[in-house]
Amino acid sequence: MDSKICMNGVCGATSSIEWKKGWPLKSGEFAYLCDKCGTAYEQLGFCDLFHSEDTGWRECISCGKRLHCGCIASSSLLELLDSGGINCVGCARSCQLHATPNHVKAKAFGTSNSNSVGETPSTSLGSQMNGSEPKKREGSDGVDPVLVLPHQNGNTNKPIGQIKMEEAFHPAGESGCTFSSNLCQASAESSKNVKLDSYNGYIGVNEIHGSQVQTNLSIALSAPSPNTKLFPATVDEGDLNKRISSLQQGSRSRSLLPKPPKSTSAVRSETNAGIISQIRVARPPVEGRIKNQLLPRYWPRITDQELQQISGDSNSTIIPLFEKVLSASDAGRIGRLVLPKACAEAYFPPISQPEGLPLRIQDVKGKEWVFQFRFWPNNNSRMYVLEGVTPCIQSMQLQAGDTVTFSRMDPEGKLLMGFRKASTVNSTQETRLSAIPKSVFSTEPTSFSAMPENLPLMSGYSGLLQSFKGSRESSMNLSSKHFNSGDFSWYLTEKNEGRNADGTFSPSMPVSDRKRSRNIGSKSKRLLIDSDEALELKLSWEELQDMLRPPLSIQPTTVTIEDHEFEEYEQPPVLGKRSIFTVRFSGEQEQWAQCDNCFKWRRLPADYLLPPQWTCQDNIFYHSRCSCSVPDDLTSRELEYLLKMDKDLKKRRNAAGQRTAQAHDSSDLDSHANGTGVAGDVRERGATSVATTTKHPRHRPGCSCIVCIQPPSGKGKHNPTCTCNVCLTVKRRFKTLMMRKKKRQSEREAEIGQRNQLMWSSKEETEVDSFSRQVKPEADPSDRERSGSETLARGHSSNQLQKLPETSKSQLDLNCHPNREDTGSSHLSMMSLLQQASLPLETYLRQNGLTSLVSEQQGSSGSQGLPPDTRESEVRIHEDQCFASTSQEQEQEGTKENSEPDQSGKDNS
DNA sequence: CCGTTGCATGAACAC
DNA sequence: TGTTCATGCAACGGT
Predict the structure, then answer these.
(1) Biased composition, Low complexity: where in the chain (predicted)?
(2) Is the CB of A439 under 7 A from strand C?
(3) A341 beta carbon < 7 A from strand C?
(4) Which among A373, A390, A371, A370 is positioned nearest to A382, based on CA atoms?
(5) Nucleotide B15: nearest residue by CA–C1'?
(6) What is the number of alpha carbons within 13 Å of residue A188 lying toward its C-beta?
(7) Separation between the CA of A310 and the C1’ of B6 (whole angstroms)
(8) Which of A512, A510, A572 is nearest to A547 (CA)?
(9) What pLDDT shows up at residue A203?
(10) How far apart are CA A253 and CA A842, in angstroms?
(11) Å between CA of A662 and C1' of B12
(12) Cβ of A521 less than 7 A from strand C
């Protein structure tokens, strides 16, 4: 060793207490530097010290730092810019932090340590350095390395070949620079780092990864040195500058993180921070008992800030031990935190009895917790758990996916427990993600923040997810309820409430609820599947359908199935904005949407298809309201009512949904329907409607088209005499269609026969054709009713209805009574049709035996005073599906429902 | 009925 | 293939 000559030409020392590696040589080896020069090199002061008078100094164009461009000793400290000039590695790195993939960045600046390697027998290179005693690195926290360096008993002689691969990825140990290898300048580590540099020259940090594995492997095998600096796994605040400087030496001191745990991508987590001191680095095991068995996933990724936070003002040294991402079980109510076996055995007191012993652990707030550290026999092994962690977990407000970090405070030996929230994402997503296998979602902040990268669509659905959450408080559409707020009277027709009353689009579930739903074990979660919350989730998916809109600017292809026209889209539907549908006492239907900018609620036509994003400026219907500066269309009270009623509807619908599910489970639709009829409960009918809701994009809840009212699949054919709600609906619907068919036929024939007169005919035609387009008071209550209901069908069904097939009912297998409507219109003579068509519709209906429809017409105007029990059932169906009913009406529903079978029977007869 | 406890099971993972 | 560990689940006890 003494035969070496310091390769610093200025120095040329032939002897040194410690030889240090310097810059990479062309041969791939490294310059040997005496202790003094090597130290200067490590401290980035080599050129300052020895070459200050030389030429070649330039300044970093970013920070102005002087860099000796003409010297190999500084070659790794700068980066030549494509545009000319140079950047110091620090500035270059900051740029790359924004341009480099997270994992690359993290890897580039992560640090790690392999204790085993550090203590492996010296290789030739190590032997060259042998004999130099460990010494505290300047800038280290001053803790005796012995205290913090794991004495890997049994590992010292461990063949290198047994070194775990992951450890080979973390050869920092051989360099003595542990977790803070990026924070300190390791002389010995330069054996690897410089080698990297030798490969990469001036390349940026992110360019080294292609060879990192091989490089590090070679380092691991070649650069052990027991005398290399053994850095404690602790960092003092005073080291920050050092760290920064070492980071600036990143290309030299970079070491490699372990491959990120499969379930986590923690290495990404801090890339957005851009703060060097907050770089989350995986700190490999620092305790000897770990014996290299600790999987990288448990390596503490604790930032220096966190360490600082934990240590506080004390002079104690914080030694990160390990961390663990909380599983659902860990964070659940059971209060048991499963400890990694290796960690438990390495860092916690040895226990021989399953009962274990109480363990005092202090949290970051200084509060001391006592957990029972114990184990369960498991096969031939043990399973270590900390029991009684629930209070602590709750205190920290931790949940599955969050990370708890265990550290030890030396010299007291006190155990510390820190945590790291995994939530940079909204709680909704957290909640959902928590249910996703951990292999799917990572738990560190960046993993969430990286979601848009991994799931680009998800970001687009974030609003949807929130909507889902919001929908928890909303209800589905079909249950109806009327409410009256002064003069503000609505029939709430559809769910909504994606936003709170204050306009914020926030999850409706209270924080406590969210926490509760998250911090539960899987078993409880499973149980919740049957609970309201889970039901709400299910309903949310149904709501999703409601939000589906036809693809923008895509014209549907019309296909005819059984003479019914349907719109088909080659592209999948898009998610539209949620809205609330209401119906005023006057029968006017409205749609309420919230501006994405100002969150004000605006009234819109009921048949307007809201795009996914909508602002006041898009309000082409009410120009006086097309600006965000215009006050909200709703008073706070009205909005409160609206949302409150919406919430109530949800509950009602949930109850109905449960009952429906039960009814379906029993495969007894009829009994369900009967029960519904007897009960006369709107909720029941609403539930039935739920099962018959949207089946294609433009169908809205309440759509009564032939598609949406079909019975649920798998339920088979209903008996022709079936009086279940579905069948009744179908029958009523069919009856309406037939009536309209006859009407139109009569009009057409009349038009043919009397081309130059019968202006009424064209009027009727117009009425029919436009019946679904706009809600407006009409002379014919039946038309108005139809208009009302089918407007909610969002036009698509109305299109179908407009194009009602000239078919006989035999073409419709809708489980309707075979004898129904046998009084076909085909037997009508032209003259009779003309005569009938000239009559008022009511008279027409009566003459055609459609007395029930007469009742319907009357019933449809029941809200204007006619007894509701005389209304035709279709009206009620429409109301049930689309509108709310007044409480009075609801009470009367029972009566009507009771009479409904009879009514249907009359219809069928 | 509900929460706790101790063990069992099996998927995921490392080797 | 063996190990780890997340989670299931039955037994048990308390209310």
Answers:
(1) 246-257
(2) no
(3) yes
(4) A373
(5) A164
(6) 37
(7) 35
(8) A572
(9) 30
(10) 91
(11) 37
(12) yes
How confident is residue A890, by pLDDT bands cut at 50, 70 and 90?
Answer: very low
- Residue A671: left (phi > 0), alpha (psi -120 to 50), or beta? alpha
Does the CB of A295 fall within 7 Å of any strand B atom? yes
Q: Write out pLDDT tens, residues A519-577.
A: 333 333 333 333 334 444 444 445 555 566 666 566 667 766 656 666 666 666 666 67
pLDDT in tens, A778-813: 333 333 333 333 333 333 333 333 333 333 333 333
pTM here is 0.31
Within 13 Å of residue A497, how many CA atoms lie on the same side as its CB? 31
Please state, as a whole number, how many other Cβ atoms lie within 10 Å of the Cβ of residue A431. 24
Domains and CATH numbers, chain A: 20-96 (no CATH), 316-420 (2.40.330.10), 576-657 (3.30.40.100)
What percent of chain A is predicted at pLDDT more than 70?
29
Q: Can you read off the two tokens belonging to residue A104?
A: 């690359």
Q: Which amino acid is at A59?
A: E
Residue A386 belongs to what H/E stretch?
Answer: strand A381-387
A673-684, pLDDT tens digit by residue? 333 332 333 233
Q: Is there contact between A353 and strand B, defined as CB under 7 Å from any strand atom?
A: no
Tokens of A268: 């990404």
To the nearest 10°, the Cα dihedral for A661, A667, A669, A671?
Answer: -100
Q: Which residue has the higher pLDDT, A430 or A7?
A: A7
Strand partners, A583: A491, A589
Residue type, A550: P
Measured CA A277 to C1' C15 distance, in angstroms: 52
A24 compared with A461, residue with greater pLDDT: A24
Nucleotides in chain B near protein beta carbons (<7 Å): 4-10, 12-15
Mean pLDDT score, A651-657: 55
Across chain A, mean pLDDT equals: 52
- Residue A379 CB closer than 7 angstroms to strand C? yes
Neighbours of A146 (CB within 10 A): 10
Å from the A166 CA to the B13 C1': 14
Report which of residues A64 and A879 the model is more confident about: A64
CA distances from A135 to A146, A148, A297 (A): 10, 13, 30
**Whole-angstrom distance, CA of residue A192 vs CA of residue A448:** 33
CA of A872 to C1' of C2 (A): 72
pLDDT for A39-66, tens place per residue? Answer: 778 777 787 778 877 777 888 777 777 7
Task: List pLDDT tens digits, range A124-149.
Answer: 333 333 333 333 333 333 333 322 33
- Interatomic distance A373 CA / B10 C1' (Å): 25
CA of A325 to C1' of B12 (A): 16
Nearest nucleotide by C1' position to the A261 CA atom: B13
How far is it, in rounded angstroms, from Cα A628 to Cα A631?
7
Q: What is the distance in angstroms measured between the alpha-carbon CA of A371 and the sugar C1' of C8? A: 24
CA to C1' distance (Å), from A179 to B8: 39
Q: What pLDDT shows up at residue A716?
A: 40
Which among A339, A334, A376 is positioned nearest to A525, based on CA atoms?
A: A334
User: Which H or E element spans position A671?
Assistant: helix A669-679
Q: How far is the CA of A335 from the C1' of B4 (A)?
A: 10
Convert the pLDDT of each residue in A224-263 to its tens digit: 333 333 333 333 333 333 333 333 333 333 333 333 333 3
A98 CB inside 7 Å of strand C: no
* Spatial CB neighbours of A409, under 8 Å, sequence gap ≥ 6: A310, A311, A314, A316, A317, A318, A319, A362, A415, A416
Using CB atoms within 10 Å of the CB of residue A788, give its burial: 0 to 12 exposed, 13 to 18 middle, 19+ buried: buried
Using the structure block, give the residue that is written with the tokens 């399953």: A354
Quickly state the pLDDT bin for A409 (edges 50, 70, 90).
Answer: confident
CA closest to B13 C1', residue: A262
pLDDT computed for residue A351 by the predictor? 83
